[in-house]
Write a structure and sequence with these properties.
Distance between the termini of chain A: 20 Å
Shape of chain A: flat
Helix content of chain B: 25-40%
Largest interface: A-B, 20 and 28 residues
CATH class of the largest domain in chain A: Mainly Alpha
CATH architecture of the largest domain in chain A: Orthogonal Bundle
Distance between the termini of chain B: 34 Å
Order of helices and strands of chain B: EEEHEEHEHHHHHEHEHEEHHHEHEEH
CATH architecture of the largest domain in chain B: 3-Layer(aba) Sandwich
Largest sheet of chain B: 6 strands, mixed
Shape of chain B: globular
Strand order of the largest sheet of chain A: 2-1-3
Number of domains of chain B: 2
CATH superfamily of the largest domain in chain A: MetI-like
CATH topology of the largest domain in chain A: MetI-like fold
Largest sheet of chain A: 3 strands, antiparallel
Strand content of chain B: 15-25%
Structural class of chain A: mainly alpha
CATH class of the largest domain in chain B: Alpha Beta
Radius of gyration of chain A: 25 Å
Oligomer: heterodimer
Radius of gyration of chain B: 22 Å
Strand content of chain A: under 5%
Number of domains of chain A: 2
Bound molecules: adenosine-5'-diphosphate, magnesium ion
Chain lengths: ~400, ~325
């Protein structure tokens, strides 16, 4: 504990260099023209810029001797910095954006993105070092989220990201809904199919080999290729079978997207379910049978509950993966948050890309935490007190 | 009562158990011993049909085991194994109440039975009822395993190396507890072990197995006095088997009435074993002990000559 925490030290130094060296924000007169970048000292002058570096320097000094108390203080400072970032943007907006030009907007520059990224990494490192649970980390993020929400709602009117959202608040909500529905359906279907497959595989070794080899092939296909492969057969089906067309299924849209998502989700789901069910302690199963439990009772009361935490791990991996993959599904007209990413790429509007990408990132993190916490809750009786 | 008639079990073409016949009387503890892989567990598990036998007949109280539904049969037979097999996601209380719950006993009867068993096995309800198996020591977990096997008060108990994973001291404690329990409960027990001392300590009937067959069976003393071949003899400890015999024989079996000469200083309890008596003589450098009863009153004497049974050792005996 006495030694310096090299990871945090490196993160802080990188953040310092990036903060002073890269462009903090950029300002453009409208959506189309290229903005002008401003570094920290061009926003508030050198004295202000140096003052803004103080928390980073302090954390770096604190972690030179990594005692628990010092790490706690470092944690407080990192959280405060994350809370201060929107305030910094508000100051920049106030100083740089001309209120008489209603189209002019403030973009978040690379220095800010880098800082955000490095601070989040520091937070993860500190959470591990201080042995805090996943929950605790989210409680720490709560004030940060509150600060950002307040700033976005009241002080960051000229922020380009916000302007992109204002113009599309309805499509944005629909996109989130579509995104979540696709993910939910894909995870739900692959959970049911995956459990059934895993059960069949436990009966017959032949099925086991077949399923694993097929799913491994699917997993290695690039996602766009898989989406593309499904286009032709589904289009043909829709053209030739009436009830399929009546269901709204066609070569593009949600149907091939969902199929491909299920295809990708099956492998982690099947693998985890299969391993989870197979690896339940043989002695426990033996004694359950020896006590006179029926097959059904052994499965429902012993094997399944003991396998559940590992199965949930499969659900977690699958969900996080599906949240990301659904972005690609926008390319074949399935909708979802990916739509903004590809529109933004087409129009070279980075802030529109962010409007799609940031919520995806956020959803993935939330799903990861919730399912991780659920799994460790279910597991608490067997590994009591082990931090995640 | 458990009877096996010419029972064989084949896995593929290999016979793991090969035509064994065995009879365990009601209230007896029968120990199956032998080197690992000789078919002890297979024999045990055929009795509650965790493994189906290939040939022969297995009877419980005169009825073929195949006549019962598997679950019904197993709920009448206690089962305890080396790894305990306790359910890690259930509390101690729930684990013990498993079979009564399967038998749909009323709630308060289960509750009362679990309490009774926990006190019987020295597990205070207040401190253990709500614990999970991973919070128990090896000895405690094994006690819970035994309590669970006894829960529905079965006549028959099958135990597969139940103390095999414990340290020597805990193992010995649990052996004595089991013997004590057995003297009160009189269950019919089949007990698998590869520890000969454990088998000698506990068994009424000792069965030595080798490569799926029974080499010799009988009362422990019979086997010790008259091992059928070199294998059984070496399993029983070779030259040491004399000491093991002494350990199984109480002083009262060999003692003489108090003689005319003054009584010896060194004393031994009448229920102690000849092995202990020998140890006392060796330590005190004497060849005569006074045998006393519970109140420390002299009831007889034991000489080295009668301890080793000189008068019995006539040629041909
Ligand atoms: N389910 C099984 N399938 C095939 N062979 C088995 C099975 N169970 C046990 N055997 C074999 O039967 C023999 C006896 O095993 P077992 O009864 O477990 O021996 P032990 O005396 O050590 O308890 C061993 O050779 C073992 O490999
Ligand atoms: Mg065995």
């Amino acid at each position: 504990m006495r030694r310096p925490n090299v990871v945090l030290l490196a993160l802080m130094l990188a953040a310092l260099v990036g903060w002073l060296g890269l462009e903090s924000v950029n300002v453009a007169a409208n959506r189309i023209v290229l903005g002008t970048g401003f570094r920290a000292h061009q926003v508030v002058g050198w004295p202000g810029a140096l003052v803004s570096c103080l928390p980073l320097v302090t954390v770096a000094i604190l972690v030179r001797r990594a005692t628990r108390v010092r790490l706690c203080w470092a944690l407080v400072l990192v959280v405060l910095m994350l809370m201060a970032m929107p305030a910094w943007l508000a100051i920049a907006a106030d100083r740089l954006v001309d209120p008489s030009l209603p189209q002019s907007r403030l973009g978040i520059g690379p220095a800010n993105w880098l800082l955000l990224f490095l601070l989040l990494l520091s937070l993860i490192e500190l959470r591990v070092r201080l042995a805090l649970s996943r929950w605790a980390a989210w409680w720490l993020l709560l004030p940060v989220l509150a600060a950002w929400w307040l700033a976005l709602a009241f002080w960051l009117e000229p922020l380009a990201l916000l302007r992109e959202y204002r113009g599309r608040s309805d499509p944005f909500q629909t996109a989130i809904l579509v995104h979540l529905s696709l993910v939910g359906a894909a995870v739900g279907i692959s959970l049911v199919v995956g459990v059934l497959l895993a059960l069949a595989m436990r009966r017959h070794a032949g099925i086991q080999r077949l399923v694993f080899s097929v799913l491994n092939i699917v997993q290695t296909m690039p996602s766009l290729a898989l989406f593309g492969l499904l286009l032709a057969p589904l289009a043909w089906l829709a053209a030739n079978v009436d009830w399929i067309a009546a269901l709204g299924i066609s070569g593009i849209g949600w149907a091939p997207a969902l199929l491909a998502l299920v295809g990708y989700s099956l492998l982690p789901m099947v693998r985890n379910t299969f391993v989870a069910l197979s690896e339940v302690d043989a002695g426990v199963i033996d004694s359950a049978r020896g006590m006179g439990m029926s097959h059904r009772q052994v499965f429902l009361q012993v094997r399944l509950p003991l396998a559940l935490p590992v199965m949930l791990e499969g659900v977690r991996i699958t969900t996080v993966q599906a949240i990301g993959l659904t972005a690609v599904a926008a390319l074949i007209g399935a909708g979802g948050l990916g739509t903004f990413i590809f529109q933004g790429l087409g129009q070279a509007a980075m802030d529109l890309v962010l409007l799609g990408a940031l919520p995806i990132l956020f959803l993935a993190l939330v799903a990861d935490t919730l399912l991780g916490v659920l799994a460790s809750r279910l597991d608490h009786r067997r590994d009591a007190g082990v931090p995640q | 009562m458990i009877e096996l008639f010419e029972v064989t079990k084949r896995f593929g073409s290999e016979a793991a158990v090969d035509g064994i016949s065995l009879r365990v009387e009601k209230g007896q503890l029968c120990a199956l011993v032998g080197t690992s892989g000789c078919g002890k567990s297979t024999t045990l598990r055929m009795i509650n049909r965790l493994i189906e036998h290939s040939e022969g007949e297995i009877h419980i109280d005169g009825q073929p085991v195949r006549r019962f539904k598997e679950e019904t049969l197993r709920r009448r037979i206690g089962y305890a194994i080396q790894s305990t097999g306790l359910f890690p996601h259930w509390t101690v209380e729930r684990n013990i109440g498993l079979v009564p719950r399967l038998l749909k006993w009323p709630r308060d009867r289960i509750q009362a039975r679990v309490e009774e068993l926990m006190s019987l096995l020295g597990l205070p309800m207040e401190s253990f009822a709500d614990k999970y198996p991973n919070q128990l020591s090896g000895g405690q977990a094994q006690r819970v395993g035994v309590a669970r096997a006894l829960a529905a008060d079965p006549d028959i108990l099958l135990m597969d190396e139940p103390f095999g994973a414990l340290d020597p001291i805990t193992r010995e404690t649990l052996q004595f507890e089991l013997r004590d329990l057995q003297s009160r409960l009189h269950k019919t027990i089949v007990f698998v072990t590869h520890d000969m001392d454990e088998a000698l300590r506990l068994a009424d009937h000792l069965v030595v197995m080798r490569a799926g067959r029974i080499v010799q069976q009988g009362a422990p003393l019979e086997l010790l006095r008259d091992p059928i071949d070199a294998f059984v003899e070496s399993l029983l400890g070779g030259e040491d088997r004399g000491l093991k015999e002494a350990a199984l024989t109480p002083v009262s079996h060999r003692m003489l009435p108090l003689g005319p000469h003054p009584i010896a200083q060194a004393r031994i309890h009448r229920d102690a074993s000849l092995h202990q008596a020998l140890a006392v003589m060796f330590r005190e450098h004497v060849d005569r002990l006074t045998v006393v009863d519970v109140e420390d009153m002299p009831v007889g004497e034991l000489t080295l000559r009668c301890l080793v049974g000189v008068h019995r050792g006539e040629p041909g005996a």
